[in-house]
Amino acid sequence: MIHFKITSAILSAVMCVSMLAAPVSVLADETPATSETQTEAAEKQETAETQKPDPKETGKEEPEVSEKKETEATEPAEEAKPSETEEKAPEESEKQEPAEAEEKEPEVKDKVKASNAIIEQGTLNKIKWELSDKGVLTISGSGNINDDVAVSLSNKNSVKSIVFSGNGKMTIGALAFWSFEKLKSVKIPSNVESIDDSAFKSCSALETVEIANGITTIADEAFCLCKSLSSISIPDSVTKIGDRAFYSCEKLTSVKLPSKITKIGFGTFVGCKSLTKITIPSGVKEISADAFKGCSKLGSVSIPDTMTVIGQAAFSGCSSLKSIYLPDNITTIYAYAFEDCTSLESVSLPLKLETLVAAHLFVGCTNLKKVYIPASVEILAENAFEDCDSLKELNYGGNKTDLTTNSSGNDVLNSGKVTWNFNVKKDNNMTASGKTAVVKYKKLKKKKQKVSRSGVISISHPEGNVTYKLVSVSKKKFKKYFKISSTGTVTVKKRLKKGTYKIKCKVTAAGTADYKPVTKTVTFKIKVK
User: What is the DSSP code string of 216-264?
Assistant: First the structure.
């Protein structure tokens, strides 16, 4: 009986244990499926901490199903095996940190590359081009750069600057960069031989152009309508500047012309409203029609003695021009040459001018008061001085009988307000200005010093023999230390104290059979130091 009770108790206990064991088994089987997300999170935490619990140390084995899930989720498969994990976990941990660093480094490099990235490139014949995302168009190779480059560029209006690379001989062909609207600067190296027709025409944002010595030709309309171009220096290697090369460059204030050109082309500087002065180099023989037409701020023009022809309307509309020197070698001045030069007050036509003063030559010169006409002129054309309302004096180098006037319709000449003078000499065009010369005090202590005329006075266009005479010294008591010869050499006597001395002298040009004498007072400085 007792045995039966014990046996029953044992059976009851076994059944209870079985019932309790069954749920545990089910839970164990369900754990991989229900906690997959937790396993992945644990893996990320293990990677971040660079350590993974060792199964042997914890005394727990991971279920096979869980290992399979880890293998699928993470890769590589080596981490799935507890035995390999035990051996390789430290190595994988060491490699994990550099791997993360390597992922970040390319991002930095990509940013650097992005700031200079090439967004377009191409090859046309032997010319190669690349356009960066900064708007820099780099051209290399050799041969003619024609407008095919512009046609090939899908981002033409993103070009901000152009540079040339390499030493291959190139020419910038016709229309090569026509209407690059965002282009601001260009550097043209010495291996570029020419800039052809309309190469940079209508580049309205172009501000600066650097041209190296070596280029020989700037062709027709090369920089036409470059409305933002403010200055340009053209190297002496250039022998030709084409017609309308700088047409309507409205902001162009100054330009240095090369010494080897012989002609200013048709309309070269038409509409350059900001141009204030121009020096035409010696050797130029012709200023073509419309060359400076509409240059309303042009107040100073220097014309060399080599000039022979001034074309029609060459200075038309130069409303700031008060005076102009016309060398005697000029034989022809065409109609309208000085039309609407409203500030022009006086002018002397050249002695070698051919027989005609052209029609409408000074039309609209409302401030013109005095004109000299040489004896070489035989005909004064109709309306030469039309609308010259201030004209009061016409001086003619010949006799009254030598000049034929066609005054039909010429109200100025018929108004009775103009005085005619005959057998008049031409005004002397001499100009003179002072300079500053330096004399060393140590040398002056021992002996007197001499300074040449060119060191103290700049003189141009004198007619007849030129002489010099000392007038005064700023510090009167020191006047005895200075002497000027008739040829302009200044002698500074020894023992003169240190300081700056202002010296006035008279410069006289004696004149010739055709020119009046003239005297100018000039101030120059001598510094003793």
Answer: -EE-TTTTTT-TT--EEE--TT--EE-TTTTTT-TT--EEEPPTT--EE
